[in-house]
Amino acid sequence: MDRVPYVFCDHVVTNLNNACFMKTLRGQWGTAAEEHIKRRGDFILFVIATNDRNNWIVKFVPYPGGWALSFKAFRKLRGSHIRITKVLIVYRPDKIDPTVPVALDRLVSKLLPAIRPYIAFHSLFEFQAGKCPHSEAVNAILNYFTTTCHFQGITVEHYGTQ
């Protein structure tokens, strides 16, 4: 098993979420795992609906803590050790005008495909929606994430329509 190329080991280790398991690896696997443990940057992706029909706030928060980064700042980090281990979609009905339609074009066509490669295999997914008048937008986002990513767990809180 040590005869596989380092690049392959590096790619596989990138998608592992279990640091304890990675510490037990030996050979090239252990070398790749050691580098990832040392240089890994785990982030939580926040996607927040706003009252601007064409705008969703997309923030990247380092885990276990730190300052939130914009999409532009996150992309500057570029590297195989940067990954998203949790996706949190927040839709706060008290902050949204239910009469304004929500546009998903920019979010689904540009932002999410650019973010997708950073989402780690078996990440966690949480959706906090409250009572949502924009069920079409909510369903589109849920559909995008649940059909393009492999999540370890999916939590949906208070999902429904008014």
Tell me what you see in this structure.
- This is SGNH domain-containing protein.
- It comes from Steinernema glaseri.
- The protein has 162 residues and is α/β, with parallel strands linked by helices.
- It folds into 2 domains: 1-39; 40-156, no CATH class.
- It is 36% helix and 26% strand.
- The protein has helices spanning 6-14, 19-23, 27-39, 71-76, 105-115, 135-148; strands at residues 41-49, 56-62, 82-90, 119-128, 151-157.
- It has a 5-stranded mixed beta sheet, with no helix packed on it.
- Helix 6 links the parallel strand 4 and strand 5.
- Helix 1 crosses helix 3 (27-39).
- The protein is elongated, with a radius of gyration of 18 Å.
- The termini are far apart.
- The model has no long low-confidence stretch (mean pLDDT 69).
Please give the structural blueprint.
Layout: H1 6-14, H2 19-23, H3 27-39, E1 41-49, E2 56-62, H4 71-76, E3 82-90, H5 105-115, E4 119-128, H6 135-148, E5 151-157
Parallel strand pairs: 1-3, 3-4, 4-5
Antiparallel strand pairs: 1-2
